[in-house]
């Protein structure tokens, strides 16, 4: 798999062979995890394969929300760094970038506008925000029939909208004229945490797993710009290309339950009932820091679908597909998006429903499935389709490497936590 006529067939496979060479010279008394730690610590992130040009894109700070959503959707990415158009040409990278904009941040910001006035229904409050910025005609269109008591969630404060809500929103001046810089709040001394090319693979893997980063920019300090972006999908592909090599075989051939996976049990999985508003699903993802949630049948633990952060784009790029629904529930959202993708002949893991595995599948099987589907999470189910757990890239990385004591030293110095009142 890793070689073809004696030569690596991909940059990822070449990296795997480099790890293989390093593996062979490690001290024999080291454990497999200690050996792999040493191997990955010896390889700089500058050797990680370059992301495609469509992934290493930047969004201007003066771009509108609509322009940002279109750019993210067209390039099939979840987020992108925002460049300050007012920064001087010789600005350092810290001054050149003001943050990262993502689908989730845009929608959560919109929700925040709709919740500003305490005691007001989300739809009414959002209509008020529209009226303040776009005039009463747009506000009246947005407010028309937005609330549907049939699908009001039992959770206090859950957002609820009818099928016209996002169509009215995306045609409003409020949406078209709001700039990306208006919703980008910096919460660290730098706009985001970045790696330098000299940092190691081990640092990168630990940031993606233990420190829960979704993607990691690599900044060239000389050029003062982002040189590469390492995504979870790229790491999954690297592991898939290495699955038959010696250093990975001892993990890849084991069944999930032999590795202690899934580590997340059913009662800890963030899920959404099929009759809950879909906005509640996205709000849960943002607040809990998860990349997706299973949709379960009412009153049970049987998963009927999955909604991920990337699916949030369908609220903004195809709002017309919900107009027949009195309320955009999780179930209605799944149905509408499946129909939209089928009609437009677009492929998506969402079309085929849940991506699942069993406890007696091997780690290699799971990695190959995740890589082929280009997704970051897989649900473990029993023979009846009931949820038994969840496995993500973080879980897999945590089984093959660990953070040595004091490893990061002062790496995080000056990086502040997100303020409690931050909504983006």
TrEMBL record:
| Keyword Zinc among record annotations | no
Annotated InterPro entries: AMPK_gamma/SDS23_families, CBS_dom, CBS_dom_sf
> Per its UniProt record, what Gene3D superfamilies does this chain match?
CBS-domain
Q: Which CDD domains match?
A: CBS_pair_SF
Keyword Repeat on this protein? yes
Looking up Pfam families in the UniProt record yields: CBS
Quote the SMART domains the UniProt record gives.
Answer: CBS
Q: Could you list this entry's UniProt keywords, alphabetically sorted.
A: CBS domain, Repeat
Domain CBS stretches: 51-118, 264-324, 350-408
Q: Which PANTHER family match?
A: AMP-ACTIVATED PROTEIN KINASE, GAMMA REGULATORY SUBUNIT, CBS DOMAIN-CONTAINING PROTEIN
Stated name of the protein = CBS domain-containing protein
